[in-house]
Every structure is written in C-alpha cells, then in structure tokens.
Design a protein that fits this description.
Order of helices and strands: HHHHHH
Number of helices: 6
Strand content: under 5%
Length: about 130
C-alpha cells in the first residue's frame, strides 16, 4: 500500500504542479509568466487537488508531500513576482497562493471571470502601494 500511495502522490504532484509550471515556456518570466500560469490553472481538475489536500489532513505522509507542493508553488510565484519587479515578492506570492486556494475551495476558478479580474486589480493596487512606499 505505501508504494501505491507514493505513486498516487507522485502522479498528482507531477500533473497538478510540475506540468502546470512547465506550461510556462523557458525564457518567459515576470508578468507574462504569472499571466500564463493563471491561464493554465483554469483547466485543471481542482476537485483532485482538493481531495489530496483533504487527504493530507488525515495522513502525515501525504501532509509532507502537500507541504512540498505548497512550497514549490509559492517558490515559483515568488520567483515570477521578483522577476516582475514586485516589492515583497514572497509575501505577494503567499497572498496570491492563498487567494488561489480559497477560490479553488469555493469552486470559483474559471467559473467567475469577475473574481479573477478583482484579484488582478487588487494585486495591481497592492503592488503599486508597496512600490510607492519603497
């Protein structure tokens, strides 16, 4: 059973994290990479991601992989926010990811373009304010 669980976790990690990141072509960075990532996540099976997150609440081995996935996702968001010249890129990446998780849990990814537009507007305003403050 541990081998089967590990195979499931690896397949989930590959399909819903690594393959999504790989959809952003080499050499693309910053704003463009963030935009391409947002487009790529719309078509994912978010129920699968939610199922693994729920599983991680009951299984410490799954929680360890979930922590790795979260760190990987936040890490790539941080990199792309840095490349875009955003101040406090790590914190922006965490906020971006937390918003994604909330929208995912509510079933709102791709379902409500207004929510995505509001998030983009809020992030732009926050980046502008952080830049102004120096």
């Amino acid at each position: 059973m541990p081998e089967y669980r590990q195979a499931l976790l690896q397949a989930w990690q590959d399909s819903l994290t690594e393959q999504v990141i790989a959809q952003v072509p080499e050499g693309v960075s910053g704003h463009e990479a963030l935009s391409l990532l947002n487009q790529a996540v719309v078509g994912l099976d978010h129920r699968l991601d939610l199922a693994f997150r729920a599983w991680s609440l009951r299984d410490t081995a799954v929680q360890e992989v979930m922590n790795e996935v979260d760190a990987r996702r936040i890490g790539i968001l941080t990199l792309w926010h840095e490349q875009a010249g955003h101040p406090r890129a790590g914190e922006l990446a965490q906020l971006d990811y937390a918003t994604f998780l909330g929208a995912q849990a509510l079933g709102r990814i791709g379902a409500d373009n207004h929510l995505q537009e509001m998030h983009a507007l809020a992030m732009s305003a926050l980046v502008a304010e952080l830049s102004r403050r120096g």
